Amino acid sequence: MRNRHITTLIFTGIATEFGVESSARDASNRGFYPVVISDCVSSIDKDSHERSLTNLAKIVIVKKSSEILESVMQ
User: Distance (Å, rounded) from C-alpha 73 to C-alpha 68?
Assistant: First the structure.
């Protein structure tokens, strides 16, 4: 990704508290700018999902898809 000059990674998917969170944290540790789309991630455990989004918001960008689309359209 660095060879292609990609700096921002957008995360969506399932198992927010596992795959999404660990991947976003790893991307941040490697110098990328992770963005987690909060309404495009999910988990079978709602409490863990919400807790993970709260934790992630402290270290990466967490936004709704409408917010991302709005900023791109401006």
Answer: 9
Whole-number Å distance between alpha carbons of 41 and 20: 8
Exposure string for 47-69, b = 16+ CB within 10 A, e = fewer: eebeebbeebeeebbbbeeeebe
CB 65 within 8 A of CB 29: no
Q: What angle do CA 68, 40, 61 make, to 5 degrees?
A: 50
pLDDT tier for residue 73 given thresholds of 50, 70 and 90 = confident
pLDDT per position as a tens digit, 27-65: 999 999 999 999 999 999 999 999 999 999 999 999 999
Q: Which two tokens stand for residue 42?
A: 């999910």
CA angle 25, 37, 21 (to 5 degrees): 25
- Phi and psi at 47, nearest 5°, equal -65, -45
